[in-house]
Write a structure and sequence with these properties.
By secondary structure, the protein is of the alpha+beta class. Strands 1-2 form a two-stranded parallel sheet.
Length: 78
């Protein structure tokens, strides 16, 4: 089931199999989605992944981020 090799497990990889949704928030100074999508577990669960990007590191629009998160979370079946 898990596409892992070796003795080390990455918490994000393990959790990705049990998560209903994986929300990654990228900021201009750190595009973490590129790194996380290379993780075997997250790549195997790519259908669950949503990436939210915001445009300003110093003053992110938290209302916009929350609205995008709400849209993603509302798609999760009960």
């Amino acid at each position: 089931m898990f596409p892992f090799k070796g003795n080390n497990l990455n918490i994000y990889d393990v959790a990705s199999f049990e998560a209903d949704a994986i929300i990654i928030i990228d900021k201009p100074s750190d595009i973490i989605s590129e790194k996380l999508l290379k993780q075997p577990g997250i790549a195997a669960n790519k259908k669950k992944v949503s990436v939210i990007k915001y445009s300003d590191d110093e003053t992110p629009d938290y209302l916009d981020i929350a609205d995008k998160m709400e849209l993603i979370l509302n798609k999760i079946p009960d």
